[in-house]
Design a protein that fits this description.
By secondary structure, the chain is an all-alpha fold. Among the domains are: 106 residues, Up-down Bundle (Four Helix Bundle (Hemerythrin (Met), subunit A)), CATH 1.20.120; 110 residues, Alpha-catenin/vinculin-like (Four Helix Bundle (Hemerythrin (Met), subunit A)); 114 residues, Up-down Bundle (Four Helix Bundle (Hemerythrin (Met), subunit A)), CATH 1.20.120; 160 residues, Four Helix Bundle (Hemerythrin (Met), subunit A). It is 73% helix and 0% strand. It has 22 helices and no strands. The chain is globular. One of its GO terms (biological process) is Rho protein signal transduction. Its main location: cytoplasm. Belongs to the vinculin/alpha-catenin family. This is Alpha-catulin.
């Protein structure tokens, strides 16, 4: 296993407690971070208790209960950690040391909080939290550090699973490359499909868990490549087997295998946070981010005239203006945009010269007049940069809109399919030239859009789109040449169809991306994007023909548009409710946001937009949505144990309603249908039931928020969480096959025990 740099984390609590985990540790996933939050909160509450001269018996008992609760929960936590160590020998030594430290720290805290039975807790004969607060702080630091180490070591097991899964996929890919018969290919591809599904789910969970948005975007891009390439690999390999002496078929197949290997490698780089040969990937700075940083520096002169040099500022502007040459040198930039960009670049240099002149004078003599002149120079420089940003944004987005509109009919692709079936090599050569020109236009469009994308994740999406056009263009050409050489070949025709669909899909994704970029520029929240993982494992039949999902026609699309609009309004309501929560990391909020995001993608489907292209995509999304709703219901039931008895029945009733509604949706989404009419009825039912779930969610979120505030305001604490049952480990072990035992003692198990450290908080 590649060594993971997930060597744990710096978690800090309120400054008054002086608590901080090992500064050398870094947490890279949300699950580890969120698991530590209750522990940090509980320990902080304990240490920050008010040192009152008179302490009631109730206060002393509360302090003792907290100390004992922490110790018991740590003991259970350590038991799980030790089980992980026993199952993973390469981590055993490190995990055992961390577990010993955690247990020792928990026992120390229990001893120092053993005050309820003492008449005089300050007595010299017994050291307590009142006489040795430093000791509690030390024990708390050790506890946080050791628990974090255990969690991060457990996280390495997840990374190991992904690496092992990748290695399986690579090994099977090597077998697929070497097969020489259809029968052997069918058997191996069936195994490969299941391995790819497993890899997709492991990496999907990891993607959602990552804290870094750039890594999330890179992971999404790599997984999208793998998803599309799986079908390409199938048809390209079958074409090669049918026409073993065809050079263009071999080139086509080799291109797919190469791209899949690169994507698999990038996933491993992301999860292990490493680069081959120790390289650091530093993508070139975009104009948007360059202007933002430049303006921040310029505006910083108001506070401090000496924090940077004029050379630094001049260099920053030079870099920005160099990047504007990507626009002015482009053959696809209009004459009007080119002239405006050149004029604004010249003006920006002049404004900076004026700013530097006033700035240098102000450093020598800080008079009122000079400071007013400096303010004017700052405003004029920033205004000029804003105009430049607006101009390049307009140039990039107007080009993109025009190109996407022009290529929406896919005339070149249609012509390639027709001339290929005719076996017309001359016409195919003519249209491949046109496709190459189209590819160059779209690649240039992606490069320019990257400059104005506004956020790093969107920049990465633009880079991914550019790569997709660069690679898919030549693959379509080789597939078309193969068909032209073998015009009667059904598999060659199917292969060309698959690559053309990938091209069309990327063009459709560009429309969504363009709207997102415009939303960021205009200060609106960007469109929500939900990644569609590979479908669940299914039986592969002998000829491996893919089930063709149904696409709705215009009339059917109009019928579901009304339902879709209602769904859109409900997602806005849910988003509004989740924003009201102080704790955005709360499990209820997280599930609510995830469900809103999925419902939004279903709304886009009703408009014929977004990433859900077919009815099969919609049904798969509905299943995931229903599963997320069930998880939310479980979170609500856990939350009900912490609210007052008066409020509990109402919350449980709502949770039961949610479970029932999600179950109905799941049954509908999984139901098998045949024929266009039945499929439309199923689409209608799925969206209707999704709307019902979202309606419930709109009622639940404000109710939970209200109950949470009520409990905090009422007594400063929630009721104790129910005690952990030891038989959960045994039950979990039985639930999984032997090869998946690492999941039994993973992050989820550890999360449960740290959550139980929130027994109660003293006032």
């Amino acid at each position: 296993m590649a060594t993971s740099p997930c060597s744990s984390s710096g978690v800090s609590s309120s400054s008054s407690s002086g608590l901080a985990a090992d500064a050398g540790l870094e947490i890279r996933t949300r699950s580890v971070e969120q698991t530590l939050v209750p522990l940090v909160s509980q320990i902080t509450t304990l240490i920050n208790h008010k040192d009152k001269p008179k302490r009631s018996d109730k206060t002393l008992q509360a302090i003792q209960r907290v100390g004992q609760a922490v110790n018991l929960a740590v003991g259970r936590f350590v038991t799980v950690g030790e089980a992980i160590a026993n199952e993973n020998h390469e981590l055993k030594e490190e995990m055992s040391v961390a577990c010993i430290e955690a247990r020792r720290a928990g026992e120390t805290i229990a001893q120092l909080t053993d005050v309820a039975s003492l008449d005089h807790p300050e007595s010299d004969s017994h050291i307590t939290i009142f006489t040795d607060k430093t000791g509690v702080v030390k024990a708390a630091r050790l506890l946080l550090s050791s628990v974090t180490k255990v969690l991060v070591l457990a996280d390495r097991i997840v990374i190991k699973q992904i690496i092992t899964s990748r290695n399986k996929v690579l090994a099977t890919m090597e077998q697929l490359e070497k097969v020489s018969s259809f029968q052997e290919f069918v058997q191996i591809f069936s195994q490969f499909g299941n391995e790819m599904v497993e890899f997709a789910h492991l990496t999907g969970d990891r993607q959602n868990d990552l804290k870094d948005d750039k890594k999330k975007a890179r992971m999404a891009a790599s997984r999208a490549v793998l998803e599309k390439c799986t079908m390409m690999l199938l048809t390209a390999s079958k074409t090669c087997l049918r026409h073993p002496d065809c050079e263009s078929a071999r080139i086509n197949k080799d291109g797919v295998f190469h791209r899949m290997r690169l994507a698999l490698e990038q996933v491993i780089e992301i999860v292990t946070d490493s680069r081959p040969n120790g390289e650091n990937e530093m993508p070139p700075i975009s104009i948007y981010s360059g202007i933002t940083e430049f303006k921040n520096k310029v505006e910083g002169l108001r506070e401090n005239l000496y924090f940077l040099s004029k050379e630094n500022l001049s260099t920053m502007l030079e870099v920005i203006l160099e990047h504007t040459e990507d626009f002015t040198d482009s053959a696809y930039t209009s004459h009007e945009h080119r002239e405006h960009i050149l004029e604004l670049s010249k003006q920006a240099k002049m404004e900076l010269e004026q700013l530097v002149s006033v700035w240098m004078q102000a450093q020598n003599q800080k008079t009122k007049d000079l400071m007013e002149d400096l303010e004017v120079a700052i405003l004029k420089t920033c205004q000029c940069m804003n105009e430049l940003k607006r101009e390049v944004h307009s140039a990039a987005t107007s080009l993109a809109a025009d190109l996407l509109k022009y290529h929406t009919d896919h005339m070149v692709l249609k012509a390639l399919k027709i001339t290929g079936v005719e076996g017309n090599l001359e016409a195919v050569a003519e249209y491949t030239c046109k496709l190459s020109e189209q590819k160059e236009q779209l690649v240039e469009m992606c490069r320019l859009l990257r400059h104005v994308s506004g956020t790093e994740p969107l920049e990465i999406t633009c880079i991914h789109a550019e790569d997709t056009f660069q690679v898919t263009g030549p693959q379509i050409i080789s597939a078309a040449e193969t068909l032209a050489l073998h015009p009667s070949s059904k598999i060659a025709k199917e292969n060309l169809e698959v690559f053309c669909e990938a091209w069309e899909s990327q063009l459709s994704d560009m429309s969504v991306l363009l709207r997102e970029i415009n939303d960021v520029f205009e200060g609106r929240r960007g469109e929500k994007r939900v990644y569609l993982s590979l479908p669940r494992p299914g039986k592969h039949n002998a000829n491996l023909k893919a089930l063709k999902p149904v696409k709705l026609d215009t009339e059917e699309q109009a019928k579901i548009a009304k339902l879709g609009l209602e769904l859109h309004l409900l997602t806005s309501d849910v988003d509004s409710e989740t924003e009201k929560w102080e704790d955005q990391e709360n499990e209820i909020v997280q599930h609510g946001q995830g469900m809103s995001s999925m419902a939004y993608s279903m709304y886009l489907f009703t408009r014929g937009e977004g990433l859900l292209k077919t009815t099969q995509d919609l049904f798969h999304q509905a299943e995931i949505f229903a599963t997320e709703g069930t998880k939310l219901a479980a979170a609500l039931q856990a939350f009900s144990d912490q609210v007052h008895n008066d409020d509990k029945p109402l919350l449980l009733l709502e949770a039961e309603k949610l479970i029932a509604t999600c179950k109905q949706l799941q049954i509908t989404a999984k139901a098998s249908v045949q024929g266009k009419s039945a499929t439309f009825t199923k689409v209608d039912a799925c969206i209707l039931k999704t709307r019902n779930v979202m309606t419930l969610l709109c009622q639940l979120l404000p109710l939970c928020c209200k109950l949470l505030r009520k409990n905090k305001a009422g007594n400063g604490c929630l009721k104790p969480a129910p005690p952990w049952r030891e038989d959960r480990i045994r039950t979990g072990t039985k639930a999984h096959a032997p090869e998946r035992r690492t999941e039994t003692f993973g992050i989820k198990s550890l999360e449960h025990h740290v959550t139980n450290m929130t027994f109660l908080e003293s006032k």
